[in-house]
Amino acid sequence: MPSSCRIAIVGGGLAGLAAANALKTFGIKAEVFETAPALGEIGAAVNASPQAVKALRAIGVGEKVAAVAHLSPGIYTRNMQTGEFLEFNDRGKIAERYGAPYYTFHRADLLDALASGLDHSAIHLGHRLTGVEERNDRVVLSFANGSQAEAEYVIGADGVRSVIRHALYGSDNPTYTGQMVWRSLLNGSDVPPEVLEPKGHTQWVGPGCHFLAYYIRQGHSVNI
Predict the structure, then answer these.
(1) What is the DSSP pairing of strand 70-71 with strand 185-187?
(2) How far apart, in whole angstroms, are the C-alpha atoms of residue 30 and residue 23?
(3) CA–CA dist 93, 102 (Å, integer)
(4) Which residue, 84, 169, 195, 196, has most beta carbons within 10 Å?
């Protein structure tokens, strides 16, 4: 027999867990269905602007995210070919203007902070959505593990290849733009400090490309 709930969120990433926390602030419990078998070390760094930080505070996780955040001083930009200084985007001034800091995170740390505010029994891992059926009074979700869930409302937060979006709008596969991004994480102790001087958040720009490196996890890791 299918389980039932009032609101189902498909996707347990940053958007899905943030949505669940936002609903919680209004006393509404949602059930989250995530494909992955665990919420873990997936992805690299995430930046959160002052307005995003204020939104995180509003949904009740401000202290939790602050505990795992790295305060970003701003981006120091150099010419990739000469090393010449070009500009400094002072995020301290941006924080003063908007009344909240500019943070950088390891994605897994931010995800854990969002998950920590929720009832873990409401986060269902290993649930890859395969089908959506709209009925008069409910929506039936079918998963690859053979289970089903019924909900009055469904929120789609299942990523770029969203099954929810496909069910609503048909085939609309992402289009490759010809641009590629490589992401990596290094131990902070393995990166000579002068590489990221003077601010710890540096980018090098050149014709048709750029390279960016900055500290996360209080300097224990470098995102490039």
Answers:
(1) unpaired
(2) 7
(3) 10
(4) 196
Please state, in angstroms and rounded to a whole number, the distance separating the CA atoms of residues 45 and 215: 9
The pLDDT tens digits for 171-220 are: 877 788 888 889 899 999 999 988 888 989 999 999 989 999 999 998 89
CA distance 136 to 140: 11
Residues facing residue 203 across a β-bridge: 77, 212
- CB under 8 Å to 144, separation ≥6 — which residues? 127, 128, 129, 130
Active-site positions read: 214
Q: What is the DSSP letter of 57?
A: H
Q: Tell me the C-alpha distance between 221 and 43, whole Å.
A: 13
224 CB neighbour count, 10 Å cutoff: 15
CB 222 within 8 A of CB 185: yes
Cα 59–63–64 angle (5° rounding)?
85
